[in-house]
Amino acid sequence: MGAVDRVIRIVLAALFAVLYFTGTVTGTPGLVLLVLGGVFLATSLISFCPLYTLVGLNTCPKK
Q: What are phi and psi of 58, to 5 degrees?
């Protein structure tokens, strides 16, 4: 996973958390966003996305 991809995932995770904890998005959609944000944060911290492996994507510039 490339650095830009990691930064985008962290920003999205923070945005989803803000939307949930400020009450902008509530209920089931809010929980879905919160879980998705957690997945984005976890995959950016470990620099690996299992979905990318399944579809053959690689955003890392190194070979």
A: -145, 115
